[in-house]
Automatic annotation (TrEMBL):
<dbReference type="Pfam" id="PF13489">
    <property type="entry name" value="Methyltransf_23"/>
</dbReference>
<dbReference type="InterPro" id="IPR029063">
    <property type="entry name" value="SAM-dependent_MTases_sf"/>
</dbReference>
<feature type="compositionally biased region" description="Pro residues">
    <location>
        <begin position="1"/>
        <end position="11"/>
    </location>
</feature>
<protein>
    <submittedName>
        <fullName>Class I SAM-dependent methyltransferase</fullName>
    </submittedName>
</protein>
<dbReference type="GO" id="GO:0032259">
    <property type="term" value="P:methylation"/>
</dbReference>
<feature type="region of interest" description="Disordered">
    <location>
        <begin position="1"/>
        <end position="29"/>
    </location>
</feature>
<keyword id="KW-0808">Transferase</keyword>
<keyword id="KW-0489">Methyltransferase</keyword>
<dbReference type="GO" id="GO:0008168">
    <property type="term" value="F:methyltransferase activity"/>
</dbReference>
Amino acid sequence: MTIPHPGPAGRPAPSDTDLRAEPGSFRDPANRIFHAGPDVLRALDETAAAHWRALAGSAFFPPLMAAGKVCGTEELPAQAAPANWAALLRHERIPFVSHPYEWSFSMLRDAALLHLEILRAALPAGFTTKDGSAYNLQWRGTEPVFIDVGSFAPLAEGEPWAGYRQFCQTLLYPLLLGAHLGLDFQPWLRARVDGIEPDQMARLFKGARRFLPGVPTHVHLHGRAQRRNADRSTAAVREQLRDAGYSRELALASVRGMEKLVRRLEHEPPASHWVDYQRTCGYSEADRAAKERFVTAALTSAGRGRLVLDLGANDGRYSRIAARHADHVVAVEQDPAVVDRLYRTLRGEGERRVLPLVMDLADPSPGGGWRGVERASFAARAGADTVLALALVHHLAIGRNVPLPEVVGCLAELAAPGGRLVVEFVHPEDAMARRLLANKPDGIFPDYRRDAFEALLAARGTVEDRLELPSGSRTLYRVALGG
């Protein structure tokens, strides 16, 4: 594929006063990410700048970038570098930044395989990666892309892969949880920005489980080696490995072994209500056709946008429609099994504009990591031109007891200033609403009414269009926000 140029040719270099530091970029003192308008920039110190130039001139790196496996990157003129930095790079902007705990099993596995593929290409050329974190990867729709160009460094003979521990904790261990124990890894990664520790994994893999593929080497042996070397310096460990004959060839064989292991890992989640929701949700063919026409007209009237959020996307029916009218679509669904199926289907279709994510909208991704800003919250990353909230409001307001004003306020705030909201209200007498209300005390939701919902929408903007579906128990609205 052709990678878009990181920035328009001839764009003036940003001044120091234009630069805004990325809160999540501070752990490697050799380089730092900044933003300046639409530009994503990386400042390098003297050592990192030398490493970058060697990398850019290598035989293995430019083909990876040309194939889209590494984000598009260019070096700006020397005078563009900020004070106290030796060089400045401009990167391709990723359409929507996501976090590994928002990915499905297949997404995490594909990200892990790309990381290993890049490392396998780098080692014979005399390079390695200093980090092995899942956060070094992002997505262009269903295509993973490695973004941490500053992670590449020359490889010293006999030196182990410095990123191995991070790779295990943020990529391999979560995959082992899913493949071997049937557990959803997302809560584990969301709880700890540095991933799952070997001693935590060891407690889960005792008895016969300790012999499952990947566990003896990457959990138990890794944990023992980590404890044994806890008081030794990195230099001493490297010297011991060199004395033992550890070589580039052994490192490459180890990476190939991990690739083989990761490819074999599979996760078949149990069936859930949401997997077959489109068939069981009660829409007639007339309702479905009318709804698709309304959504298409709403997206067309808004003009081509940069980003559409499809909240409660399920099988991606409306995400695909939105992809015809926007540069990028983020399809959010709470069930990991549904998201995994959607990801695999989109990947098979070659659809590259839709990014499916796992997220419970009643408990969306908060800010995390250092000071709560190292990993930005979902709300902070949103800012969509159009927010689709179809067959969602009743699940939040009735199913999760979120007050209706809160639901509408949340949906509106996920849009960019001047954006649009396309939302569906399921009336209290609808079969699905009655099913949800059947498990609630009588009279608990007196304000869950169509007139109250419309008043909330009017307070947030201008209702430009509405449509009652043929069944008579659901209404769609197109709202221009901020009016």
